[in-house]
Fold:
Amino acid sequence: MNKSSPSARERIVAGAADMISRRGLNATSIREIAKHAEAPLGSTYHYFPEGKQQLATEAVRHTGEWTTRSLRAELRAGPAAGLRAFLALWRKIVVDSDFRAGCPVLAVSIEESAIDEMPAALAAAADVFATWESLLADSLREHGAEPDQATQLATLIVAAVEGTVAMCRAKRSTQPLDHTAEQLQSLILATIKD
Structure:
């Protein structure tokens, strides 16, 4: 196997993220994930001996890391550029999937768990959201926003984008992204000082 091809484990994690983004966690089985990732079912259990929750946790982290890399790179040009990139990333996902995929981090966050304690996948989702908020808030502060306002606006951006992605799927339209982009852009420009 050459270095550019993903390992079986990476394919399984990416496949789980994709399936969760389309169906949600509860409607996604380990067997379907293995098939989707073109991996033997046994290797799924080999890499994820704790089962579906372990795999879902890794899928959430995978999505979080992938999105964070993009967001961090774009935020170097400022919070407005970061917002545009964040929205463009989700636009591509919903359009390329014909409005069938959303965010697996959100999908894991809204489904009720069958276990009493907080599942690891939900904790991972909270960490991902916190990371995105922190990156945005730091960028806003670096560009002159007041600390509290930067924190609140960062939360609003993440919440608005996540909700907008769900609306795009429901409406089979990118119009919610366009409306959200315009309003969030205005808020950022009114908040920063450069």
Notes: Residues 25 and 108 are 6 Å apart (CA to CA). Residues 147-171 form the longest helix (25 residues). DSSP finds nine helices and no strands in the chain. The chain has a mean pLDDT of 92.
